[in-house]
Write a structure and sequence with these properties.
It contains no helices and eleven strands. It is an all-beta fold.
């Protein structure tokens, strides 16, 4: 019903920046009252580690960040494009991971939603 597709990953030197994008497509319902999603999040998983929340943005615009990225990463959205972004600045080697987009997407004005994940995009930070 809905697909999430991430892009923007790559190889960057420590101290550099990357901007990830997550585009939602499919049977999405959007309205001025409900928007097109309930919440969208960026997660990451490094080798040998559990997947962890990086940042999330709610339909009203409020955001939440992991302590490890506060002040360096910014989550934002473009509602016209059904897209959520993650601007990553001052990247560190420990930010190296596969970054996944997840979302709770509106399907109908009856409140039904879809929850799922994108395929992930690799971010590698070199020293």
């Amino acid at each position: 019903q809905v697909q999430l597709v991430e892009s923007g990953g790559g190889l960057v030197q420590a101290g550099g920046s990357l901007k990830l994008s997550c585009v939602a497509s499919g049977s999405i319902f959007s309205s001025n009252e409900m928007g097109w999603y309930r919440e969208m999040g960026w997660y990451r998983q490094a080798p040998g580690k559990q997947r962890e929340l990086v940042a999330e943005i709610f339909s009203g615009g409020s955001t939440n960040y992991a302590d490890t990225v506060k002040g360096r990463f910014t989550i934002s959205r473009d509602n016209a494009k059904n897209t959520v972004y993650l601007q990553m600045n001052s990247l560190k080697r420990e930010d190296t991971a596969v970054y996944y987009c997840s979302g709770v997407i509106n399907l109908s004005d009856d409140g039904s939603t879809w929850y799922g994940w994108g395929q992930g995009t690799q971010v590698t930070v070199s020293s």
